[in-house]
Amino acid sequence: MVHAVSLENGSGQAECNNGTAPMDTETDMPNLSTLPPPDMNWAITLKDKVVAITGANRGIGLGIAEVCLANNAKAVYSLDLMEPSEEFAALSKKNAGRFKYLQMDVTKEESVKQAVDQIVEAEGAIHGMVANAGMTRHQPALDFSMEQVEQLFRLNVFGAWACATAAARKFISLGVKGSIVFTSSMTSYRPNRAAPSAPYGGTKAAVRNMAHTLAMEWAPHGIRVNSISPGFVKTAMTYYVESSPDWPTKMKYYGGMPRLALPQELGGAYVYLLSDTASYTTGIDIPIAGIVGAW
Predict the structure, then answer these.
(1) Tens digits of residue pLDDT in 254-294
(2) DSSP type of residue 83
(3) What per-residue confidence (pLDDT) applies to 125?
């Protein structure tokens, strides 16, 4: 049962209409400082936002960056260990001065901290962190060496942790109500029958779970933490999926959308979670898998 609350009873104390004891307004009232301003612009936009995306030199990260830029982000930074791709160069040229690259190793905490510091030094602030960098390896579980398993966890989980905590510390020091978005995966929910990888699914389940707890811990600072779980997306890592001889047959019977997603098709969800419009959205995962039946 939900009980309405009367904030004041005339004596300066708050009371509930269910007859429970009054609440001390000075010590027990919730902190309302995280509320949006009364003149809030409710358009879904990244205007004036500075966003960092790990692993955005190609693939899903690059697609997210393109959609962020299309939604008026002030600046988008790709934080990547590898050199930028031709596609990165083309998008950067199209968005002169707004799409930038910083070399960073997500598995090294100091490298992450330095990159965040560089962004703030150049732009004056940072408002969003997309912990997207990751890798996969598809093979039977008994074929994995412990070194391979550790490599997946080091990049996908520890790297995401380093990015989230570095961003949160910077948000708090700047007084920014920032947003952190993890890229998880539908394999965090169920096995990928088309290309199994038990360790990869484990890393993505860890990331999705981590988002929930960090959202709870950092909510008092106005920091929101969410995740997105894509299904099959058309990237260099999934080229083999469509080339499989039985792919058309699988698509015929699985139901859902019989194709892979373009990376840009994920971008709308990231833009929403990074925007101020999502000011009350935290601790959730958004699955984006038009062929979810294939999993």
Answers:
(1) 667 777 889 999 999 999 999 999 999 999 999 998 865 54
(2) P
(3) 98
Options 92, 184, 200, 275, the catalytic residue: 200
* pTM given for the model: 0.84
185 flagged as catalytic: yes
Q: Does residue 200 carry a catalytic annotation? A: yes
Q: Which CATH number fits domain 45-290: 3.30.2010.10, 3.40.630.30, 3.40.50.720, 3.80.10.10?
A: 3.40.50.720
- Out of 92, 184, 185, 188, the active site residue is 185
pLDDT at 294 (0 to 100): 47
pLDDT, tens digit, for every residue of 225-258?
Answer: 999 999 878 776 665 666 677 777 766 666 677 7
Count other C-beta atoms under 10 Å from residue 144's C-beta: 18
Kindly state the tokens that stand for 68: 């962020």
